[in-house]
Every structure is written in structure tokens, then in C-alpha cells.
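Let us practice reading a record.
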Amino acid sequence: MELRLLSSLVLLLLSLSVPPISCISTNSYNGCGATFNCGNLTGIGFPFWGGDRPPECGHASLKLDCEHRAAATIQIKSVKYRVLGINQGENILKIARDDLLQSLCPPQLANTTFDPRLFAYASSYLNLTFLYGCPPVDFPVPFPFECAVKGIKERRGYVEFGTQLSGMCHASVVVPVSYSSLFNFKDVAALIGEGFEVRFAESGGCDGCERSGGRCGYDETGTEFVCFCSNRWATESGTCGGGVAADEADAPRPPGVADGRPQGPRAVTVEPSVSGTRALIKLCGLVLTRSRVFAC
């Protein structure tokens, strides 16, 4: 009797506090219809999120921010980049190191690195190596500058083409630049400002989802692709049942984007403990994140 009463109470509380799954899917469907807009960068959708686009509308590592309503930025491997352009048709992201655009003496010295499962260089590029805390030398060095680095007495620095070790200098930072920008080379700061292009991976299931009337997004981990429908969860094929063949919707995913689909919520079950006086409530089919609910 005690167990049955507790089970009924749990189900009643869930019905009052957790919105229907169809409402959850509809909220995500509506939210993912918004685009990211900042300055000259407009109409940006999947797989990016940020601004008016909720987190479930894009990959966890592809969050866009808008600074002063004019400059779009993205954080990659703890380094902030200025977003110069996005070509969603070609999956091209053009970026430049924001810290080095501000000053050749950034507060933190960090190399330019990318997750190869999510990014790949899209065009020919050349690395520049910024050398910091270098001792005086008797020969000319390329592109010299002065920079105070915490914990380093020497202030001299210079830039070399290619990937170089710090050698007799205390620190080095490697930054890629586009080969094409070398034709109009003026100075190092201008070269960095031209940026470089990377290709971002995108889930292969998005085309099928959109053709079926759905909107593309990710689950609560931000890495597993899901298709949001206007009034329910996507079907097993990863589409909204708009007639797209399952093999089209399940095309091979690019490296780094897992092939995941949402499953319907499992039933809430109540199991008695060994003593028979307590109940273990398993909400194994629902994941509560902030104000949204996603199917596991």
C-alpha cells in the first residue's frame, strides 16, 4: 500500500512539473528557427548557436558571441577568435586571433590548436612563430617588437615564418595565416587581421531532417545530433516523417560528429528496496537540464 501510494504521488508530481514531450520538442523547434546575427554576420544557423539560438540548436563547441553588437567571436581551445565570415554552404569559418589583433603582447601566450574531429584547415596556410623574451643579438631579426611578459626579464621579441622552437627565447606562439594574404603583406598586425579559414564538421543527418520539415540540433551533451519536429520527437530515421528515406537521413557523418538520435522517454518506474519500506525512483528516461527536458 505504501509503495503504491508513493508511486501515484511521484507520477502526479511529474505530470505537474514536467511539460509534455511534444511541448519540449516544439520549444526547441521554434528556438532553432532563429538565426545568429551580429554586425555584418547575419542569418547564421546550424551547427552554430548563441544569441537568440538556444544551446540545443548547435554543437557545444560552436557557440558564437556578439561583442558590442558589432563583432562576432568564438572560443576554441581557450583562445578567442574574431569571426570574419561564415560560409555555411561550404562549411567554412574564417577567423583571426582576437588577442593578437588587440596587441602582440597578449596576457596569455597560447598556440593556435584545433580539435581535428571538428576542424580542419580549409585552404593553404603558413605558420608564423612569435618569439618572446629573446636576448640581444648582433644580427638583424625579422619583424622585431618589444613586449613585457610576466616572469621574463627580456622584452625583445620578433616574428619568424614557419613553425620554430623558442630556442634562445623564453616562449613562442604559433599562429597560422593564409597564403593568399601574403600577396598584400604590409605588416604582421595586418597579416593576422586577414585571418585564415577552417572547415567545420557538420552532422550528415541535417539535410534529411530539414527536408522532412524538421530543424537540426543536438542533445543535452551538445555533441549528438537530433532532429526537432514541430509537434513531436523525430522518428527512428532521424527525420520528421516527411518522406525522406532513412538511408539519406543516415548518411555518414563527418569525423567528430557522432551519429546519435533521440529515443523516446522510457517509463518512470518505481522499484521497492530490499527492506520493502523505501522506493527507488528511476527517472532513467528523462534528463532535466535547466528549464528544458531532453530524452536520453
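A brief commentary: The longest strand covers residues 125-134.
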